[in-house]
Write a structure and sequence with these properties.
The protein is mostly helical. It has helices at about 1-40, 40-55, 60-70, 80-85, 95-105, 110-120, 130-140, 145-155, 160-170, 175-195, 200-210, 215-225, 235-245.
Length: about 260
């Protein structure tokens, strides 16, 4: 009986040790695949990840990269790889955010809601669960529910993301464009005020091209568009084209100094 116990312990120890070694090797291969993907060698990265999964089919580092590669292909199997990461015990708030977005995108509503709640619990954006709820409701055609969720998200946190999501909703229905014009303009202007990056610049362009501004407001917005911190030569050329399209008889300056 003693020797049987020794053999059993040795047997368990061997397989435990092998599993540890395989997991380590799989993580090394996942790191190699990350380098390959970053260099643009997607097919090579996929092959390396397949080798990693042969050694450890629940390796979170390999699953994290595979999920992103599959999602880039618009392949719903990405959700299963994000789930592997979530179940690994090593998932970050960002991992749960990506899982929620992918699950909502591919129609797994319960998983999307659970992942969004977990993201918030781990210190993620407090508005994120409402944004995911709005995405789910949009897929169901529930515009009233979507609007309520978007406004709840904005109450939880004012950000370029929550403001832009509300603007997208307000501008989506062409029949209500005139009715929503004033609020849409306020929301997009607010994005530009709080976001000095590309999102703020894009919000200004959205307002300028959406047909929601009066001629006087458009002139003021064009000046803000030209002088926004993220403005560059391309956006100033774009401003000139917008101005010319609105006033065909005028010849706007191509560039204006900030």
């Amino acid at each position: 009986l003693f020797w049987l116990l020794v053999i059993f312990i040795a047997y368990r120890g061997f397989f435990f040790g092998k599993a540890m070694i395989d997991s380590y090797r799989a993580t090394r291969l996942a790191a190699e695949a990350e380098t390959q993907a970053a260099a643009g060698s997607k097919d090579e990265a996929m092959e390396t990840l397949k080798q990693a999964f042969t050694l450890d089919d629940s390796n979170p580092r390999a699953a994290r990269l595979m999920a992103r590669l599959r999602e880039a292909e618009d392949n719903p199997v990405a959700v299963e790889y994000y789930r592997i990461v979530a179940d690994s015990g090593q998932a970050s708030a960002e991992d749960f955010r990506l899982l929620a977005l992918a699950a909502a995108r591919y129609g797994n509503e319960d998983l999307a809601s659970e992942a969004a709640a977990k993201n918030e619990k781990l210190g993620g954006d407090p508005a994120f669960p409402d944004l995911i709820a709005a995405q789910i409701l949009a897929s169901k055609g529930d515009n009233a529910g979507r609007e309520k969720a978007l406004r709840a998200a904005l109450q939880h946190k004012e950000s370029s993301e929550t403001l832009t999501a509300l603007a997208d909703f307000l501008l989506a229905d062409a029949e209500l464009l005139d009715l929503n014009a004033a609020e849409s303009a306020r929301v997009l202007q607010r994005v530009a005020q709080i976001d000095n990056g590309p999102a703020g610049l894009q919000a200004l362009r959205r307002g300028l091209t959406a047909g929601i501004l009066s001629p006087a407001d458009r002139a003021a917005w064009l000046q803000i568009y030209r002088t926004h911190p993220s403005a560059d030569t391309a956006s100033r050329l774009d401003a000139a084209q917008i101005e010319w399209a609105a006033n065909p008889d005028l010849r706007p300056s191509v560039l204006q100094k900030t």
